[in-house]
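Supplementary Note 3. Input sequence used for the single-chain structure prediction.
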Amino acid sequence: MSTRALWTMIAIIAAATTGARPAVGQGSTAAGAGQAPSCSDGAYRAFDFWVGEWEVRRPDGQVVGTNRITPILGGCALREEWTGTSGSVGTSYNAWDAASRRWHQTWVDNRGLLLLLDGGLADGKMVLRGERPGQGGGTVLHRISWEPLEGGTVRQLWETSNNGGATWQVAFDGAYHRLP
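The predicted structure, written as discrete structure tokens, is reproduced below.
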């Protein structure tokens, strides 16, 4: 993830958690000083299929948690709030960066995991990728896809690779079912 993308996500997180509006500065695409940029372009809506309140199940049907995805900052970003049945809790902020023409996600959880991912739509799925240092050295690649399915469900598939992407292992495979 580029430094610009990282600072963009930090600004989104700060604004979302404090209620502050990001300042419009030099190089902004806003029409006038003090005016927030428009997030109405179709690219900002590409991840809207994930918006909602969900029960998440493994392929065997076992419930593993709930997830709430809400638009924030006037539709410029999405906030994810995960609560797992095992006690895991996490939050992500997701935003389209018009300058890089990529989606970005910053994920943090109560077990100390920080993931910085970016990517976009590919074959009808949102696919985000990133990398982190491995526990025993080396680099672990992360690839997470969200795919809207018939009936309104969404499949999330999280895969990791310890060998530069030559092979991938499933870290998580879940089906999102809308809560009433």
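The first helix runs from residue 3 to 18. The first strand starts at residue 52 and ends at 57.
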